[in-house]
């Protein structure tokens, strides 16, 4: 039966699961999305998408015939390929929590049957988890047969905010595991590898794009590739921030410096944007995850530790800048523009704005915050913080002593800054994402660049 995959089950309906399910349905497979959260499944059945991700709603909406949602694991019986896309949130010591992976594997195992079924792990998991999942399947499935049921690691490299085009037009597909199982998964991905699918409306194939590299590895290497890729990107950002700090002190401009070094093909321009550093659910967790893995083997990873330290120092440097200008923050009205950890998402995990708001209120400031999409989520998830949510960016600026741009939403670039600065009590902009550059009124402090035309108060 089935030398060619047809039916797919996707466990987990977060960014990775929803993207994977939508993509595979679009390519033409019969997909069942499974989640243990009945509220999320009910939402998806009604055609609502539980997260904010550009284009996702459109991609899922066209697929009713090929894409169904359920809380029951029974669909596993029919599936040729089963994707595990559940979260691995960091525990208190920074190591990823594998509870969801463990329970997904244990729950799917009883439904494995006699035909070849590949279990693909897309969640970011510590090296060795693939083998662990295989053992769980063995323990929980009466039908387990290691020649038919194989685990493949197929890490996901999509970014939030651009998840769809990242998964439709990836740089590479990494597949680690037994060669037969990898071949089978490669057959499932054939339309993606050959780029023979019709691009969905709203996510056209970029002109320069041809097709992804296919990287076949062992299970362990694939698992390591995911961590190493994220750690390297995190490193690049922290490197830019570390050099940026020195730039400021010696009168250089980090934006010019990044541009200059990025033209060296060995370095590249991407992920050298200095500013508030990284947030989100991945870079912090994955750098910590590697350090913890090292520790288990008594192996120190000083470069990664330094990247983490530099990253979180950036948040304090922004506060230091404010204090330099305003002396005391007590009673000062500070506006934070942008709460999500990056634009085009409402994800608040490890967002720099969180730490800024917390620190500002601790120092006695009165904080107003705004975000184009994340405010409803913030009112639930950041209920412990004290700030006033502003209806729009312009209102947020009225009578402010300073504004910090914490997320580089396009809408903030487009604001009529010269006019809005006039409504502030003091014209102080801390452009912590370096987005305003030249189209500026005259009082901007950037990160990694000497105060730009700042006019001290009289
Ligand atoms: C990251 C990786 O980029 C993805 O390849 C990976 O699949 C994903 O983690 C994951 O492991 O799931 P993501 O966290 O969604 O994706 O977002 P990024 O675009 O990588 O941004 C991360 C953070 O770095 C953001 O806070 C962003 O503002 C910051 N950043 C990014 C910089 O400060 N400077 C830069 O030059 C680039």
Q: Spans of 5+ residues with little confidence (pLDDT < 50)?
A: 453-458
Known CATH architecture of the largest domain: 3-Layer(aba) Sandwich
- How would you classify the helix and strand content by structural class? alpha/beta
How far apart are the termini? 81 Å
Which range does the strand content fall in? 5-15%
Helical percent range?
25-40%
Pfam family, one: UDPG_MGDP_dh_C
Pathway: Nucleotide-sugar biosynthesis; UDP-alpha-D-glucuronate biosynthesis; UDP-alpha-D-glucuronate from UDP-alpha-D-glucose: step 1/1
Family: Belongs to the UDP-glucose/GDP-mannose dehydrogenase family.
GO molecular function: oxidoreductase activity
Secondary-structure blueprint of this entry?
Layout: E1 7-11, H1 15-27, E2 30-34, H2 38-45, H3 56-61, E3 67-70, E4 81-84, H4 99-108, E5 117-121, H5 129-140, E6 149-153, H6 163-168, E7 172-176, H7 179-188, H8 190-193, E8 213-217, H9 219-250, H10 254-262, H11 283-296, H12 302-326, E9 333-337, H13 352-362, E10 366-370, H14 375-381, E11 388-389, H15 393-397, E12 402-405, H16 410-414, H17 417-421, E13 429-431, E14 444-446
Parallel strand pairs: 1-2, 1-4, 2-3, 4-5, 5-6, 7-8, 9-10, 9-12, 10-11, 12-13, 13-14
Helix pairs in contact: 4-5, 9-11, 9-12, 11-12, 12-13
The structure holds uridine-5'-diphosphate-glucuronic acid.
Uridine-5'-diphosphate-glucuronic acid is lined by residues 124, 156-160, 230, 233, 237, 271-273, 275, 277-280, 282-283, 341-342.
Pathway: Nucleotide-sugar biosynthesis; UDP-alpha-D-glucuronate biosynthesis; UDP-alpha-D-glucuronate from UDP-alpha-D-glucose: step 1/1
InterPro entries: 6-PGluconate_DH-like_C_sf, NAD(P)-bd_dom_sf, UDP-Glc/GDP-Man, UDP-Glc/GDP-Man_DH_C, UDP-Glc/GDP-Man_DH_C_sf, UDP-Glc/GDP-Man_DH_dimer, UDP-Glc/GDP-Man_DH_N, UDPglc_DH_bac
Keywords: NAD, Oxidoreductase
């Amino acid at each position: 039966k089935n030398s060619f995959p047809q039916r797919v089950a996707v466990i987990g309906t977060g960014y990775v699961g929803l993207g994977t399910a939508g993509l595979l349905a679009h390519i033409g497979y019969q997909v069942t999305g499974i989640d243990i959260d009945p509220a999320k499944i009910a939402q998806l059945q009604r055609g609502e998408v539980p997260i904010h991700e550009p284009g996702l709603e459109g991609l899922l909406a066209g697929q009713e015939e090929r894409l169904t949602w359920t809380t029951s694991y029974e669909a596993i019986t029919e599936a040729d390929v089963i994707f595990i896309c559940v979260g691995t949130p960091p525990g208190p010591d920074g190591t990823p929590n594998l509870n969801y992976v463990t329970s997904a594997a244990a729950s799917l195992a009883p439904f494995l049957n006699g035909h070849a079924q590949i279990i693909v792990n897309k969640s970011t998991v510590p090296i060795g988890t693939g083998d662990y999942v295989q053992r769980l399947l063995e323990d929980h499935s009466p039908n387990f047969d290691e020649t038919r049921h194989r685990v493949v690691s197929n890490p996901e490299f999509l970014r939030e905010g651009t998840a769809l085009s990242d998964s439709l037009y990836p740089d590479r597909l990494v597949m680690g595991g037994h060669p037969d199982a990898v071949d089978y998964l490669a057959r499932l991905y054939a339309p993606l590898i050959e780029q023979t699918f019709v691009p969905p409306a709203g996510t056209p194939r970029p002109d320069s794009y041809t097709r992804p590299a296919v990287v076949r590895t062992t299970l362990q290497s694939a698992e390591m590739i995911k961590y190493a890729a994220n750690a390297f990107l995190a490193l690049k950002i922290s490197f830019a921030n570390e050099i940026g700090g020195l730039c400021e002190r010696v009168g250089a401009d980090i934006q010019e410096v990044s541009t200059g070094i990025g033209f060296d093909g060995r370095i590249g321009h991407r992920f050298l944007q200095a500013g508030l550093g990284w947030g989100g659910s991945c870079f912090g967790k994955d750098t910590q995850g590697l350090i913890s893995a090292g520790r288990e083997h008594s192996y120190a990873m000083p470069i990664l530790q330094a990247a983490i330290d530099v990253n979180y120092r950036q948040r304090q440097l922004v506060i230091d800048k404010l204090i330099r200008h305003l002396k005391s923050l007590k009673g000062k009205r500070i506006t934070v523009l942008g709460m999500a950890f990056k634009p085009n998402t409402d994800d608040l995990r490890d967002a720099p704005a969180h730490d800024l708001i917390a620190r500002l209120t601790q120092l006695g400031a009165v904080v107003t915050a705004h975000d184009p999409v994340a405010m409803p989520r913030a009112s639930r998830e950041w209920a412990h913080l004290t700030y006033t949510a502003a209806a729009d960016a312009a209102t947020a600026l009225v009578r402010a002593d300073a504004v910090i741009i914490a997320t580089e939403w396009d809408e903030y670039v487009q604001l009529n800054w010269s006019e809005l600065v006039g409504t502030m009590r003091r014209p102080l902009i801390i452009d912590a994402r370096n987005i305003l550059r030249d189209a500026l009124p005259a009082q901007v402090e950037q990160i990694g660049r000497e105060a730009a035309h700042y006019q001290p108060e009289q």
